[in-house]
Amino acid sequence: EATLEWSAQAPPSKPNPFHLDLSPKDCPVSSYNEWDPLKEVIVGRVEGACVPEFTIEVKANSYEKNWPFFKEYGGKPFPKEFMKKGKEEIEEFCRVLTAEGVTVRRPEILDFSEVYKTPDFSSRGLYAAMPRDYLLVVGNQLIEAPMAWRSRYMEHRAYRPLIKEYFLKGAKWCAGPKPLLSNELYDYDYPIQNVAQRHELAFEGKFVTTEFEPTFDAADFIRCGRDIFAQRSQVTNYFGIEWMRRQLGSDYNLHILTFKDPNPMHIDATFNTIAPGIVLANPDRPCGQIELFKKAGWKVVHPPKPVISDSHPLWLSSKWLSMNVLMLSPTRVVVEKDEIPIQKMFESLGIECIKVNIRHANSFGGGFHCWTTDVRREGTLQSYL
Ligand code: NVA
Predict the structure, then answer these.
(1) The pTM is what?
(2) ipTM surpasses 0.95
């Protein structure tokens, strides 16, 4: 008691050096949607990337034709030519963004082939190539994702210097509950061979991950002002979506969307709101709730089929990376140089295309949206629906 009394009367010691009284408009982190004019962005890295080992969650998220690749390369760097050309392409992408007036930030270079071990599992890493998967920015808040892949458990190490810097400059910072990623999170009986059955299971809301604990990848969320859209995927579970709903609070409406997709993982090659009133919707993966947008007077645009050749390796994604674009503003988009049909579609909508080639970088599993996370866009929190 004596001590308590003393501390109550004690004069303040030195002020907290971390204290900052900033109005949200001065915060370097501020982004509410996928289209407002882009000011600052994190672009991922090829350096240090390691092919994931062939675990059940990797098997459930990849196509059968790529399984021999994971068996041969799992735990090793991606093939040399792709490491080299992918790096060059991403550096060129960064130069283009800088020339467009966007500040480009990069994660740390780490060696993802190092083994780590917890009481529940041991794994090697993957990469810091896709910041969109790991970091979600909602307003002034940075949210780190509790990702379901064991190979991504240590990915935060590549982003922490940047995240700490943004926090010191006034951003809010939180991370989803650190998952165990123990065996209970995975359904080891999940049928992986039969696509028809996977369609049925996805429709019923059953995936390779269970509801053992909350997990999500940030790339399963699309931001549209006060409305945020999420999908239950092979890596984002309902538990994780509910965590996000409560974390965001009453300023936001979190909607769960469903798609006809036997292999959902990351919503941004399936569905994206690219401007107020325009949604880009994958024609192969119809959305069960599209009426919501139509009723609100939105234009639902179905992009043309991708043109990438069958022989070009895409180890971790479908060809629909063609629609995985980065909006620099509602009227400017970064799009793949070879994808002429989708460029024509954007032009017909009055959207100017900035053409960049990242074909080798695509092989790592992402397009321009995946390879980036927007840190700051102009604009404020608004309702669009
Ligand atoms: N997994 C999805 C999204 C990739 C960004 C696909 O392969 O289409």
Answers:
(1) 0.95
(2) yes
